[in-house]
Fold this sequence. Notes:
It contains 3 helices and no strands. The protein has helices spanning 31-48, 55-70, 76-90. The longest helix has 18 residues, at 31-48.
Amino acid sequence: MFSAKVRGCDRGSGVASILPFIKPEDGSFDDEVTRNMGEAFNATVKIIHHTAQPAAVYANIAARIIEAAGRGECDPARLRQIGLSAVERLT
């Protein structure tokens, strides 16, 4: 489903709290991409923290970020926007 390994992304750092959402079928990501996905996920969660959200919303945010990273997106800001778009589609 996603690329086996995405390389060449060298930006920022972040806590990879997205790890619980990555499934084996998502493929594998190098450390930098995983940090960028975690940074994007954490930033998205921080933006929406003031609203009560069911667990499914966080899973959807993570899925969108993971899918985009699997297609080669590695910029944390763009990944965050993709995560936020998942929330906007649900509201």
